């Protein structure tokens, strides 16, 4: 067990007012470490420190900000092994995921936004020619109209101010880094409120930033299990913007609080990704679809909002898809994420395991057929859910409509007499959702796949892939979020536009 953590406020490690709470390893059920339980007063102190630091940090040169972010990336890379071990212990990620998709991605994001700090923030606009008629008033002439005739302009991105970053439990490294790094690159200061289940990694990130030379108050970290801690971090009058990754229900609550003071928001919320598989997919394409959809069973144990959990498959390949998905799931090793060869680790907590299992049981009662999984793995400790495949699902089932956030795939078959009818039916079924984060289309006809993709009401579409382009904008339609980040779009998200005009 690591030493008890302290809060990070105004460049100092501060003892929490409300003591500590235990962070539990979801695989072994042992205590990983003790996380600090902040008071609301300490949260407000962190926001005030960020407000005070903003005045100077926002005026630093892009080169200075880039240097801090670059040094932080180097420190994280140096200590990658220890940080990956910590991430695995507190989040339940497998060893490969903890290294490659958590800490390594965090390193990459600090490196990306070290470069991002140097991206141009001003865009020259075409001059506007104003007609200078004889009736032009003295007031207009004073503003540059009239005889001048031409107005120049530039659009400039400026930092928003103090940003509260509320992070998710499924990736305690990449998710915070994806918020903190672009926010700092743009000249903002931050208050980070990590998920209560696995906050220790975020304190490791704060330590790396402190070692990298981030000035006091620019980065602050406060944690706690009490909802009042998160509410204070959002509602503080010193906060100008909230960046949140998590459930739609919590995002709606944060949006209500932000709305009172018109605070800027960046929300990456729930998802129920539709994976459309047409019967023209072919043998090779079907194998690719199975491998892509199968990531729901393994990657973060299904605890990922981008997972293709809702499969909409044409009847001609329905049974083949089910057979191959069942074989895929059955070949996955479920167990201790620290052991070599483990692919499926635990979900984050006992409560979440019970929630996932309840969805599977509800699906049985509603008429779904459990092809594989559906029973708790026989392991001595840990919060495990067996990869579960639900067949014969219908659009109205809870398992089809609601985000389960676990290794559960629901398959909805559909019939169509013509290719055109197949497209219309698939699009209708995919769009029949409160969510719209990322959908997927598998077809051997690329033109058809793109035609369908353009009509999906979702922030992203994967065509014959579940891969991501990490420069493409990321975010959702409908209840899947507000705003876009990733790549240069994240720099835009953490900035405000200012116009400057002058007479030509």
Describe the secondary-structure layout.
Elements: E1 7-9, E2 12-14, E3 20-24, E4 31-36, H1 40-57, H2 62-78, H3 80-91, H4 95-116, E5 122-129, H5 138-142, E6 150-159, E7 162-166, H6 174-185, E8 189-193, H7 200-211, E9 219-221, H8 227-235, E10 241-245, H9 248-261, E11 264-268, E12 274-277, H10 282-293, H11 295-298, E13 310-314, H12 318-330, H13 350-365, E14 369-372, E15 388-391, H14 398-401, E16 408-414, H15 419-431, E17 438-442, H16 446-453, E18 460-463, E19 481-482, H17 487-493, E20 495-503
Helix pairs in contact: 1-8, 2-4, 2-7, 3-4, 4-6, 10-12
What this model shows, in words?
The protein has 504 residues and is an alpha/beta fold. The protein has two domains: 243 residues, Aldehyde Dehydrogenase, Chain A, domain 1, CATH 3.40.605; 198 residues, Aldehyde Dehydrogenase, Chain A, domain 2, CATH 3.40.309.10. It is 39% helix and 20% strand. It is built from 17 helices and 20 strands. The strands form five sheets. The chain has a seven-stranded mixed β-sheet with strand order 14-15-16-13-12-17-18, with helices on both faces. The longest helix is centred in the N-terminal third of the chain and has 22 residues. The protein starts with 6 loop residues before the first strand and ends with a strand. The mean pLDDT is 95.
């Amino acid at each position: 067990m690591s030493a008890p953590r302290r809060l990070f406020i105004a460049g100092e490690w501060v003892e929490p007012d409300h003591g500590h709470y235990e962070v539990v390893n979801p695989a072994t059920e042992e205590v990983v470490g003790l996380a600090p339980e902040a008071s609301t007063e300490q949260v407000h102190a962190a926001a005030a420190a960020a407000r005070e630091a903003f005045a100077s940090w926002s005026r630093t040169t892009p080169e200075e900000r880039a240097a801090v972010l670059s040094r932080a990336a180097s420190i994280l890379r140096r200590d990658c092994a220890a940080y990956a071990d910590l991430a695995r212990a507190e989040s339940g990620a497998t060893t490969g995921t903890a290294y490659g998709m958590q800490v390594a991605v965090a390193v990459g994001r600090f490196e990306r936004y070290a470069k991002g700090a140097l991206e141009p923030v001003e865009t020259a606009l075409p001059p506007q020619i104003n007609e200078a008629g004889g009736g032009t008033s003295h007031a207009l002439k004073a503003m540059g109209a009239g005889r001048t005739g031409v107005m120049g302009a530039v659009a400039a991105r400026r930092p928003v101010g103090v940003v509260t970053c509320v992070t998710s439990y499924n990736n305690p490294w990449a998710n915070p880094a994806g918020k903190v790094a672009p926010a700092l690159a743009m000249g903002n200061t931050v208050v980070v409120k990590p998920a209560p289940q696995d906050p220790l990694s975020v304190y490791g990130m704060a330590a790396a930033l402190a070692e990298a030379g981030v000035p006091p108050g620019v980065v602050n970290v406060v944690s706690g299990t009490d909802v009042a801690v998160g509410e204070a971090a959002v509602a503080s009058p010193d906060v100008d913007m909230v960046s949140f990754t998590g459930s739609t229900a919590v995002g709606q609550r944060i949006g209500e609080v932000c709305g009172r003071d018109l605070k800027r928001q960046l929300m990456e919320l729930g998802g129920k990704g539709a994976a459309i598989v047409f019967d023209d997919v072919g043998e090779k394409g079907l194998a690719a679809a199975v491998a892509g959809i199968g990531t729901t069973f393994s990657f973060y144990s299904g605890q990922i909002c981008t997972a293709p959990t809702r499969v909409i498959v044409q009847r001609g390949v329905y049974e083949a898809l089910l057979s191959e998905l069942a074989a895929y799931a059955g070949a996955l090793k479920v167990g201790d994420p620290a052991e070599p060869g483990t692919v499926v680790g635990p979900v984050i907590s006992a409560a979440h395991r019970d929630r996932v299992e309840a969805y599977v049981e509800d699906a049985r009662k509603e008429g779904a057929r459990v092809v594989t999984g559906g029973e708790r793995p026989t392991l001595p400790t840990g919060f495990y859910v067996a990869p579960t495949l639900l067949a014969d699902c219908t659009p109205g089932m809870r398992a089809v409509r609601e985000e389960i956030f676990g290794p559960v795939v629901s398959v909805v078959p559909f019939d169509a007499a013509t290719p055109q009818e197949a497209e219309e039916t698939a699009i209708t079924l995919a769009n029949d959702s409160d969510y719209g984060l990322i959908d997927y289309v598998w077809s051997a006809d690329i033109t058809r796949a793109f035609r369908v993709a353009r009509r999906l009401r979702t922030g992203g579409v994967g065509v014959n892939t579940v891969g991501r382009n990490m420069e493409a904008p990321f975010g959702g339609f409908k209840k899947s979020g507000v705003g876009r980040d990733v790549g240069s779009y994240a720099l835009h998200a953490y900035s405000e536009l200012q116009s400057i005009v002058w007479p030509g």
